[in-house]
Records
---
Amino acid sequence: MSLKISANTFFLRRYLEIDSSGITFCETAALGGTRTFRFDQVDCVLMSNDNVLSFQVGQEVFSLPTKPRKRRHQEAIETFVREVKRAAGARLA
Amino acid sequence: MEMLCPECLGPLEARDGRMARCTLHGGHYRVLFWRGQPWTTMAHEPGQSITGLANRIVSKCTHCGQRFKILAEHVGKKARCKICQSEFVVAPFPSHLVSGGDSSQAIVASAPLTAQATKGRTCVRHANKPAEYVCARCGSPICATCSFPQASGSQLCPDCVNVVATALAPGERASEDFTGVVCAHHPNVQAVRRCAVCGAPMCATCDFELPGRVHVCPTCVAAPRQGLSGKRKGYLVWSYVLAAWCTLGLAVIFSGALAGTVESQAGVEVLGVIIFLLIFAPSIIGTALGFAALERRLANPASVWVAAIWNGIILAVLLLLVIIGSFS
């Protein structure tokens, strides 16, 4: 089972998928452009004032607009942050 | 490990661990997680023990209302308020009434009374039964029969269950858990319910109760959304389609185009059935859809009223024709 935040436009395919193994981020106008990360690879997760979710992996930053009023987006974000925190806690242990 | 700005990749300056500011363009961001901050590595999920942080509950003095953080193991015991010096029974304060703070201050499930605390304590409703729980809302000792387990793990007495159940807005599920869900306007405050108009989570401060026990957020109160939900839009579109169709049918009837098309009585009856199926029945459905698109408690745009009235007029005209035809 996976949670997904989709923010597609007419010309751009953009989504963030969260599953048990990690996250998959896609931002592309055509095929390809999918990046997969484990939870313990995520260094930072930010939310801007206009509800753009960003996460940092190393020196790369990935952003995705979200809708706070959409329950699925909220659940996906909560799961994402919870799993990242859990992975960070396990890594320090 | 340095945080980078999502817009300009400039360095971010972390303020209190929860907010960060870009040093280049000054943009503010809410920090949901940062590996470089020690507190982010602490598991703040309720129930996990972190140096006693999650083992503490918030309890309220029943006399002066002062709130205290008390170790969960003292639930059911008597305590003396530091403010008014009155004695009160330690009971978990409902989590949705705790304003501010993070989820680690949420209420731990009301633990069963220890053997020492239950000595001599009986249920408030059944004097001959020993108390096994403490109501999370009023602090009354209750037996297993009187206890109503909640989704959060706490127990409520029969009186408080009724109060909580009636306090919910129509259509709101009692079992919805807002743990970890923050208010859309106050990112540091836990949400307690969702706006009935837009569905955004809101805290107790942002909760505006309108007549009819409709709970809406400040945005919807100040500027009610004029748009329709998907379902109402569908109703509206179909009611307009059916109204147009029935209007066309009425125009055909009144224009006399059907006059002389049938001569036999059987033909007239068949024509009547066709008119009923193609015009009368759709007008009934269109009228029903038009009125279904109306919202009783919130504002309705003019297009909804137009659809309902248009269909109503068509139906009235058809009924009039039927009545006239039956008397002629």
Note: Residues 39-54, 95-118, 165-175 of chain B have pLDDT under 50 and may be disordered.
---
Amino acid sequence: MMDAQSIRRTVIDSVMEIAPEADFAKVDPGRSLREQLDLDSFDFLNLLIALQGRLGVDVPEADYRLVDSLDGLVDYLVRHQVRG
Amino acid sequence: MIDLRLPSFGADMDDAEFIRWNVQPGQPVNKGDIACVVETQKGAIDVEVWQAGTVARLLAEPGQRLPVGHLLAVLAGEGEDWHAVAATATAAAPAPKAEAEKAATADARPPIEERPPAPDAAPAADAGAPAARVSPAARKRAAELGVDLQALAAAAGGKPVSIGDVERAAAATAPSTAAQNMRAAIAAAMARSKREIPHYYLGCEIEVEAALRWLEGFNAGRPVAERVLWAALALRAIGLALRASPQLNGRFVDGRFEPAPAVHLGVVTSLREGGLVVPTVHDADRQALPALMHELAEALSRARKGQLRSSDLADSTVTVTNLGDLGTDTVYGVIYPPQVALVGLGRVAPRPVARDGQVVVARTVQVTLAADHRVSDGLLGARFLADLQQQLARPEGLA
């Protein structure tokens, strides 16, 4: 089981692989990650695929509205992570 | 004996610089294996082998600037002895007629090595351009440094261009040459399009609530790695609608329209650092939706990482530009010659629609068609859009 800090780190690393120029110092964790980092639907899907691979959590489309912000995404992953 | 020739990656491409070989004589290769890497205005492209065989003889060398169609290597086919094939291969084999026609431009051009490496390759633009006043020494230096002599001469306004000018230009542009080349390639293609193609534009708003609900149902049972996005659904519908509108799917060359036997969609893709690439999704009218999504996702991923392959840039028959994710409602596109149509997709968003005498909210998308008036008329274009609307109204037919 990973703690929220490690999960946050994993999310940031995964985003950096898709958007290497992303500056997380400027990202508001409460606002839409996609808008702030200019991620399109393919970028976002690739992010979810990477997170599913690393954390074992599959985010269904019905839950997309819960993972719009960085905080939302980390919270969701913490709650749903697969017990190892 | 199997020929491996430099493929064309677009109508605006004449040549490429050979970078390196990934295979060696005697090596067995399968279809899809990367044989070599070449550098074009679209960046470094991995050239794939089209037929399984054994590499017999390599004929291209790093640093060479080669025209489209040039013989890069010969391979031995099944049952052939590669040593024998290597011995009979000659380095000076001429390109077959079809390739030569594709590579040839309106005016006969001198061999590649003698021309300065100007990024602009549009034939009509060069036909009347005055020769730049450049000394042979400056021309040689420009070739060494990859400086665009035409741009320099234009900036010099008729005054002779010296070696000093060339070296200063090289120093000024060195860090962003790749980006500038790409911008120049786009500029050449778009300028040619607007110069030569009489565009007409049609648009319609298509209700996609049913299609998107169907897609949500389709995705609900699938793991995230197999999820299909709206973009893929749209391409599938466009592919099927184009099958019924052959006058929108093909090339206009030498004053004549040639309909294409297949529907290959070029998908305009923005790169994060700026610029565009247009990878191809093949047989959009024939591939099942999951396979089409997979090909699209892979091609976009390669495009964004600068790892494009020759099959990604094989000539598409129609181009689609999807700017919906960026918030644009309507796209008025520019046709990519020698194609004769471009489909523009705007943002999918909830909008008011009239249904049974009431105003309700449903997701809709503005779709536009830019088409070549030399080849089709508004009525045909309108039929295409009506067909597309029909396809999206019956999403089960898109799976």
Note: Chain A touches chain B through 17 residues (CB under 8 Å).
---
Amino acid sequence: MRRIGGRVGVVILLAAAWLLPAPPASAAWFGIQLCAKAGTLRMPDGAILDVWGFARKPSTLACSASSVRPQIPGPPIQVRVGDTVRVTLFNALTERVSIVFPGQSLPPDTTGVAPGGSRVYRFVASRPGSFLYGPGTNVGIQTAMGLYGGLVVRPTSGTTAYGTAASDYSVESLLVLSEMDPALNADPTGFDLTRYRPRYWLINGKAFPETQTILAPPGRPVLLRYLNAGLRTHTMALLGMHQTVVARDGYPLDFPVDVVAEGVPPGGTVDAVGTVPDGTTRGIAFALYAGELELTNSNDFPGGMLTFVRSYGQTFSPATDGMILGTAYGAEDVISFNGSNFLRRTTAYVNHSLLLDGSDLGMGTLNVDGAVVVDGDTLLLSIAQDASLPGIGAVDDSDIVRFDGTLGPSTAGTFSMYFDGSDVGLTTDAEDVDAFEVLEDGRLLVSTFDTAYVSGLASASDEDLMVFTPTSLGPTTAGTWAMYFDGSDVGLGESGNEDVDAVSVADNGDILLSTRGNANVPGASFADEDVFACTPTSAGMTTKCFYSPQPVHDGSVFGIGVRGLDALSMD
Amino acid sequence: MNGMKRSERTKAGSRGRRAGVLLIAALVLGPSLVLAGSGPAGAGPGIGMVCTGGDTFDLVATDGYISTPDGNAIYMWGYAPAGQPFQMPGPVLCVEQGDEVTVNLDNDLTVPVSIVFPGQVGVTSSGGVPGLIAREAPPGGSVSYSFVASEPGTYLYESGTEPDKQVQMGLYGALVVRPLGHPNWAYDDPSTEFDPALEYLILIHDIDPSLHVAVEQGRAYRITDMHDRYWTINGRSFPDTIAGNGVAHLPDQPYGALVFVEASDSAGDLPALIRYANAGMVSHPFHPHGNHLRVIARDGRLLVGPGGEDLSVEAFTKTIGSGQTYDLLFRWIDVEGWSSTGNPLPVELPELQDLVFKDDFTFYSGSPYLGEKDDLPAGVTDFNACGEFYFPWHTHALNEFQNFNEGFGGLATVVLVNPAGGCVPEEEG
């Protein structure tokens, strides 16, 4: 599938995780076909570089197929100790190419195959660790052009990187570091490598602001697998938290060492574990960057080798009353979850607690069907029914109310009107607000239970998201409507099941969605308790986006399962 | 140095003259230092790390110039203590473990600035405006930062605004956190006790003067064309590094980097503490000639295992990565006890007529024995007081051991080893 901006790492890793044998694993096979192929890479400043990269090749297609696109870095290979890895290389370049696997028991291939040829590499991944794969031919130029990728070998069982307590983790991030010198990319066959002078610095093939934020719940260990595929040392530093170096080049240290910054030499790998301090407010971001201050795109700041570890929580409301992970929750509750691992579908680290206990506020018979966490003591909520709330009185299902007070298992506070739907055309039961989000610029995204008719739009279906630009909010609401996300443009809406009933917008612009029932979209299908992402390339009346092939949050991992999920706030 | 073209220097200056003047100036100080036995840390002129103490610091981001030994003047931005003139680098902030530290920053520059504190946890900020990495003081404005210095150690502080420019320009300094109740320990461990008169900071930075000219003249800042020509320790290039603190000819570069120890007869004497920190944009392999140092900590964390295992290492060359700090203990123990009387070197010493001294001056005492002096060839000026030893401590990336291609310069200092018991200059002996 096509690369998605900023989310390559997560998307592709999720797909590869899906290919893993179910744990506990006896030794298995992992096979992948890679084309070494020319392509382009766009930098945030608009520069387009010619690159050579590894493309995942389906067995049904030739390297020349336009959908076989090289990626920088190449597809990550993820296996377990004892697995046999079989990589078939196809050469779609115009010079010889090979792949070497440093750290693996395989004689390095420094002769490679001729253009048009192919070769199979087979080895047993005998020890856990973080490794690079890259070219064994014309190494300097081919590496600088982008021919590299990561190989992650996990222990056969458990939740650690090396079977050691120090390498235990809840969240995992692969950080393939590299550089680009446009003068080299423009002339790989004639370039004098002694004149190498990078102008771009990349994490997983992206430069800030397109680098991926690492979302981490407070108090849980985050594994940072640094793989330096570049030609320069990068001394990776974290602000606001130390990181513990637990391994170098796939060898666990007998004595892990706490550092601010650790040098990762070219060709080297470093595994470090960082922990967002307990109690850190959601949304606080910790800069992770190259100590060499390679923080520009060409000469423009900000850019380069910079990303953030972001304190993070997920907030859901279930669609129905019932048990979640052994605790009874109601549809009127808003639940805070910590801990999720995009790469392993395990409940091992899911902690959950009440953020808003609806029955404390007399909402026991109601269903919260939309939620946004504003800060530590403020929530915005929409309710599926007409109701009477303390402090406001009558509210209907098209309203959004604001709760201020003490959040947590003993919830107490007051309500006020935030968005009065009937002031702006949401008057019928069909126009029940069943999903909403507040954008950074203050506009509201709203989705309704069924078709909505508001001024400025012919209509909006239950799978759409309207955007409301307020001129006033509160008991007197006024503003204008437009279309933000037309679900039917992107495969949603063929059935009532695909009613969008929960939405949140991530930092990088991804639209995170959940639907009333199961959803089938191009390339993926999701259950009603899942949260999936659509990365937009255009919005509004003509919506285009690419779906995550796997759920961003698998509701069954969170125990939501049959409960369903009808409100979502990711922050 | 021979054959260097005048056009290769950004400012004309008589080659060698500045170096000679500085060496003489340094050595005028030298004998007085060795007479004193040790330099008082914290007072200037003198040697050793200069602390600015307290728990609330008022700093101003301002601009000025630094001098280089080859006669250049480089435009810099730096943190100055409020009410005091521009200085490079910023003051060494010395606090005690557990202190709630507040740093107030005023901005005299025409661009926003900020401070980040790598290695500190829970830094909060107020005032100013939001920035990408840290809250910033707008031009003419201010911002405040606050944190609890919970872990002893050596740390950097530097700009979090456009760091590729602002840290290059000089917005950096060191932060020292002393363990609670033990100001003479480096960490909360008695094995890290050091002689408080022998505390030294080696704070490294690298400079591409053409980038500084670009900022000075408002021209495009092409960081990807960075080509360093100067390297500094505590804001000075060798041989200015071996002049004392507060010397008159370097008014804006108040901190020297000369290291002084007295030879120990036993391991019982307290060691010197050397704090390495790299505020530069490249790694630097730094080493002391003729000596190992014991690396006891990294980035403000003592090298000790979970069961109390001693993970310190003796090291010669230590590569200090960008943004890293190390703490090292140093003793000069006279293990061999060579002396001309009881224990002579088992080699033939060269004849006087076979010795050549560049430019006819030297630090050498004429005798290879610590504490002894001997004859030197006629016409050679000897700056050695009492047979003390001098070792260069420098980057082994030798391109950095230069001032704009003129060696020796750049990232280097000297350690002066006094004979055990102190220096008794021969003239008075």
Note: Residues 362 and 426 of chain B are 16 Å apart (CA to CA).
